[in-house]
Amino acid sequence: MESGTIIRKTLPIHLSLGILLLMFTVSWFLSHQIFTVRVHDLDENTHVYFGMGLVSIALMNMVLITWEEILFPIKLKKVEGGVVFKNHRNKLKTQVLIYCPIPLILAFIYFTYDVNHFRFFIWAAVCLIPPVVDKIVSGINNYNDYLMLTDKTIEYKNNSTEGHFMVKDIQEITIIKDNQRIIKKIQLGLAKNRSFMIDLDEMELDAFYDSINKYIFTNYPQLVK
After folding, report:
1. DSSP state of 35
2. Considering the entire predicted model, what is its pTM?
3. 130 and 23 in one domain?
4. pLDDT value at residue 152
5. N or C: which end of the chain has fewer CB within 10 A?
6. Which of 121, 141, 161 is a domain's end point?
């Protein structure tokens, strides 16, 4: 595995632009419901068109954050003798920057236009909540988490829990999967019946599960139980 090896590419640029353009157009036409101006009166209240455009931009920002395949490829980082699996910090920083305009746009619309409060707050919740709950909070909580697998060591950090193990001291490795056969945890068996559990499902490493599984079976076949 080479440094910077891409294991999940972004969508083709023409497909990404097509999806975003379609979503922008649909949301633009639907966003008039947020404003108290009726559809038939829009031509006499053209300033509302600008507000509709802003609402659509806020929605696009939400999509760019939650649908990571549009902007963010997943890469493996090579270290001496192995690889490190971790979320790229630049991705989180970019997501936060993309998110910042959303509350500003919604605040501007709320205080500048006459809006239907019920519909506005539903739209605001759609734009504001999913990125925070699904990506940003998780990214911040797992900002320093990582799993490093090398020829000589297995090392990890999961918030306040961390460990560093020499491969020569590990007697067996048990890969624990869920009902969908997706790897969730790695149990390391040591001498004197001691064991340590690495909770991958708490470290936001979902995109790396297949690569982690493949690396373990390829590099530690004699240890896998």
Report:
1. B
2. 0.82
3. yes
4. 93
5. C
6. 141
